[in-house]
User: Which sequence fits this backbone?
């Protein structure tokens, strides 16, 4: 009989939990009507991209964007908006003037962008010599061939342009079959991380060998740098104790292939930069909409996206898109006077591109000790963290990160959004962005599934990542869903259920 009563109580509790997770259709309708009739996303996105410019962590561009975001939050009825330092980051850097061109065997311009944290190049001119990627990471080989690098630009060989892939579709959306078969995405295994660590150790060592041999600069095409697209990012150089020693430039693959075919090419480079001599602090932007329920408002629902970007464009899909969606979700809740129960906190992170520094340091400053991995008392105040950082595509569902207990909850929350093509919940994981920091701290943390659009084929870390590649209607849809999720999490009787805490080191610790 006791077992029967316990079973009945458990069933009643489960039914009560499911009942509390049903979304009020009137709330959904109100949020949808407000967003699709009078969205602020176009203006927010234009301010954060065109007006702020590139937002390299620690740069004047990042500060412009952070200051703008704080002032924008303060236009709404937030209880707090400001910046918060998460610790020392590295060297402040920005390019002030740049050109790269061929002068022999004839003049031609090169599609090129300086690698962030590159040192200046004062009207350098020299012939090009080509080495393979493997050779560029082999210090012994470079030392044995040092004589051929004096006064030369070093072109790191790239793969020939694959013209056949140009017949494919550049921008895509998920069909139902793809959503039904989603696997782990953007995940990095411990073994892969070891290889990355070895690469990050070898790279500056080999660059110093080239510098000592008399090389004057590095040029390379990387990733999807073809069809006029240039992938532009930095893998090291932002720390004072590990600076870049040679000017480095990313170029289009077509230009790299042309230089290789011509055999004897002389380049002229000018790069003027403004850089600090001391490290600057890393910053996050934090804003809060105070909860209205006295029993719940000490607890927090968090929304986040990373504010920093690379410098060849204005970081629109990576990740102004996520930032403006989170800002718009907060604005919607405020403008509609929906009165969340728990406090809703939006965080716009710095240092994501260099290894999730902004979110991880925020987590270790507030929720979990970095060295001992002990959980701090304030960790228990965070109900859930939602993240958006996979481009401009509309939301199609959510990665549950192996948290089985949240699946029935999310099914209820996605139920009103079938008409917006969002209903997929997968237990699989996605990685390489800021929700991982919170997941490591034992906080329920989730990244939404987004349509790929042209994120991986064109815009991710490239010179095309600008306002014109944003899908504004997709971002409106995302803002509606996230506003509803944030509101529902804020009024829920209980915090969202958490997984068991992983006691292994954070995968990006040490970057």
Assistant:
């Amino acid at each position: 009989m006791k077992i029967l009563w316990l079973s009945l109580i458990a069933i009643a509790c489960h039914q009560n939990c499911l009942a509390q997770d049903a979304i009020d259709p009137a709330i959904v309708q109100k949020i949808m009507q407000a967003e699709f009739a009078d969205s602020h996303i176009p203006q927010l996105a234009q301010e954060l991209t065109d007006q702020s410019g590139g937002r390299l962590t620690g740069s004047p561009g990042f500060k412009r964007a952070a200051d703008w975001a704080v002032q924008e939050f303060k236009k709404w009825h937030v209880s707090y908006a400001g910046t918060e330092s998460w610790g020392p980051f590295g060297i402040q850097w920005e390019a002030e003037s740049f050109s790269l061109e061929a002068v022999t065997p004839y003049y031609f311009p090169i599609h090129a962008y300086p690698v962030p944290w590159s040192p200046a190049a004062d009207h350098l001119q020299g012939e090009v010599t080509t080495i393979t990627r493997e050779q560029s990471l082999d210090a012994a080989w470079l030392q044995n061939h040092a004589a051929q690098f004096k006064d030369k630009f070093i072109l790191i060989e790239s793969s020939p342009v694959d013209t056949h892939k140009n017949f494919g579709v550049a921008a895509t959306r998920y069909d139902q079959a793809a959503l039904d078969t989603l696997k782990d995405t953007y995940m990095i295994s411990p073994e892969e991380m070891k290889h990355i660590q070895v690469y990050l150790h070898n790279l500056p060592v080999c660059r110093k060998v080239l510098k000592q041999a008399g090389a004057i600069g590095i040029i390379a095409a990387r990733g999807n740098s073809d069809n006029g697209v240039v992938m532009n990012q930095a893998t090291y150089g932002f720390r004072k104790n590990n600076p870049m020693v040679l000017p480095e430039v990313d170029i289009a693959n077509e230009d790299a292939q042309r230089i290789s075919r011509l055999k004897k090419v002389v380049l002229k480079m000018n790069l003027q930069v403004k850089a600090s001599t001391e490290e600057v602090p890393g910053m996050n932007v934090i804003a809060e909409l105070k909860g209205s329920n006295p029993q719940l408002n000490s607890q927090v629902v968090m929304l986040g996206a990373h504010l920093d970007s690379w410098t060849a464009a204005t970081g629109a899909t990576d990740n102004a898109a996520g930032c403006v969606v989170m800002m718009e979700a907060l604005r919607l809740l405020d403008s509609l006077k929906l009165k969340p129960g728990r406090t809703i906190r939006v965080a716009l992170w710095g240092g994501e591109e260099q290894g999730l520094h902004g979110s991880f340091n925020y987590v270790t400053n507030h929720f979990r000790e970095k060295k001992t991995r002990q959980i701090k008392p304030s960790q228990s105040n965070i109900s859930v963290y939602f993240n958006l950082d996979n481009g401009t595509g509309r939301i199609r569902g959510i990665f549950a990160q192996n948290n089985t207990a949240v699946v029935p909850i999310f099914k209820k929350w996605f139920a009103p959004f079938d008409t917006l093509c969002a209903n997929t919940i997968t237990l699989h994981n996605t990685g390489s962005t800021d929700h991982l920091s919170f997941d490591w701290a034992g906080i329920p943390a989730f990244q939404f599934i987004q349509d790929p659009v042209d994120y991986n084929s064109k815009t991710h870390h490239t010179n095309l990542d600008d306002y014109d590649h944003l899908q504004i209607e997709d971002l409106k849809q995302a803002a509606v869903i996230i506003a509803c999720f944030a509101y529902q999490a804020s009024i829920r009787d209980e915090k969202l259920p958490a997984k068991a805490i992983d006691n292994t080191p954070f995968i990006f610790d040490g970057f």
The first strand starts at residue 80 and ends at 104. Residues 190-212 form the longest helix (23 residues). The mean pLDDT is 94.
